[in-house]
Design goal:
CATH architecture of chain A: Orthogonal Bundle
Order of helices and strands of chain A: HHHHEEHHHHHHHHHH
Strand order of the largest sheet of chain A: 1-2
Shape of chain A: globular
CATH class of chain A: Mainly Alpha
Number of strands of chain A: 2
Largest interface: A-B, 46 and 46 residues
Structural class of chain A: mainly alpha
CATH superfamily of chain A: Farnesyl Diphosphate Synthase
CATH topology of chain A: Farnesyl Diphosphate Synthase
Oligomer: homodimer
């Protein structure tokens, strides 16, 4: 084994340990005595998911010299549970039947318990973050942004004003803000310099935008089985990239589904979206020049590339 | 004006200033750029409400020597917004049309926006509490309890096992825990001794239990106009004091609404509930002997009495 290989094996071990500690924290904090909350929370957590936000937090921490895995377990769990809470509530509003290849909380336990499970996950985040006074404001801002983004999306669908500008504002709030919080919290926990923290915050923000654009593209093209969640829902409800890119700033009066499909056949929407996601990832990676070279930095770059290269 | 009168006027002024600062913090933190969230949050906040949790926090703070009103504005706003979040989500699950004499968020903005408004209020609490590392765990625990209590209630209705024990456990979690957090946070902010903090925590917990029992009684007896919210809903859905007290530990197979009404005519349920609430308030007041005499302590005692004497 070369020195380089040994170092990479070391990082892989650290990553595995870190992610395992985060999983443990997520299951511990949701281990309620109230059966439905515990079962529904563990159901959605056991459904997998990419854990991209905890990975981003962990890698940001490691890339600026952090080394104590126990230090990131609770914040790592917090960012994932925040995301999971919004996913559970999304499935109520969208009537989503499947989530990550398994039945949604909503479809198993019904609307009332799904609403309460989402609330429970939001409250679990308070507990996880209670030891971290200085980081709470970052997470608080991203939590508010998440709900604001979801609300703007619901408003845009209702008022049929899904312009390109509105779309970018929505994905910045509902997705990129939590990515940004993940990377900046990781950086701050490792006592990074302000310049490094800002670079990692921007990195998280930009790959968050790219992630959501690709997610919306996958939602359009993937068939239900491959994606493992109720596909096409975003489209049917008149939101997401397809609607945004074909509107070009003017509201479309015809059936949104019809016009999206027509536009899709021209292939333009998907191509443009992929190009934009690629540019965002290039920008994200370029901004990392202030972070010293390390295996963790290489992994951050690999994570950014994965965001646009994934097909699930 | 006697010295005693002057002191009381002074307390009244301090209370008014404190509550005004709390109102300001609530409106500031919910002043979102996203119109629906801002409007719906301000609608429910403008609908009044007794502000009993912030009052409890403020009086607990003053009763153990606190004097800086600015110090309690954010935590005071946090406990009220936590309660308000659960109220907005309750109205979704219960299909509540009226709340505090005005149309519910749900009935004006619809289910999707009501769900997101509740989420938004939960996230506003993160921001309010971010400067208070040591108090976050108290608030976190009460937040989890709140959602656990609501969930137990929904489960008990679904499974028709609304026993007296289950009822007490539900109200301890969904109401008394946040009352307890309010008084103990107030005490801790004023650097109270452990003995004083525990006394005030128990005080909050006991009047919280009494408050919920009286609330359930009022829900049974009050007509819709007087109470200012969709009355009778608790009963119709087979939850609350009426069901609990008439079950006596055994599940009732007949229509719950029918058996509650029959029991009501005997007058037993309401009488027993009032007695229990009275005992809880007596106990709460007795426990305050470790708190030095002051106008604030007198006001705490008056607050406890108001909890059972109110008829709205």
């Amino acid at each position: 084994m070369t020195a380089r290989e040994a170092k990479q094996e070391n990082l892989e071990q650290t990553m595995n340990d870190g992610l395992a500690a985060i999983e443990q924290a997520m299951f511990d904090v949701t281990n309620s005595e109230v059966e439905v909350l515990r079962d529904a929370s563990h159901h959605i957590l056991n459904s997998g998911g990419k854990r991209i936000r905890p990975r981003l937090l962990l890698l940001s921490y490691l890339a600026v010299g952090g080394h104590d895995i126990n230090h990131i377990a609770r914040p790592g769990a917090a960012v994932e549970l925040m995301h999971t809470a919004s996913v559970v509530h999304d499935d109520i509003n969208d009537h989503g039947i499947m989530r990550r290849g398994r039945p949604s909380v909503n479809s198993i336990w019904g609307r009332t318990f799904a609403l309460l499970t989402g609330d429970f996950l939001f409250t679990a985040v308070y507990e996880l973050m209670s030891p971290y006074k200085d980081l709470n404001i970052d997470l608080a801002n991203s939590a508010t942004a998440l709900v604001e983004g979801e609300t703007l999306q619901a408003s845009a669908v209702k008022n049929n004003n899904f312009t390109r500008e509105v779309y970018m504002r929505i994905i910045a709030l509902k997705t990129a803000a939590l990515f940004k919080a993940s990377s900046s919290i990781g950086a701050k926990l490792a006592n990074a310099t302000d310049e490094q923290t800002e670079a990692l915050a921007n990195f998280g923000f930009n790959i968050g935008l790219a992630f959501q654009i690709i997610d919306d593209i996958l939602d359009i093209v993937a068939d239900e089985e491959q994606l493992g969640k109720t596909s096409g829902i975003d489209m049917e409800q008149g939101r997401g990239l397809g609607v945004a890119l074909q509107n070009n700033g003017t509201a479309v009066k015809e059936d949104p589904m019809e016009s999206i499909k027509r536009k899709m056949l021209e292939g333009d929407t998907i191509e443009k979206g992929r190009e934009q996601a690629q540019q965002l990832v290039d920008m994200a990676i370029a901004g990392l020049h202030v972070i010293p070279e390390s295996d963790a930095k290489d992994e951050l770059i690999a994570l950014a590339k994965l965001v646009i290269e994934r097909n699930y």
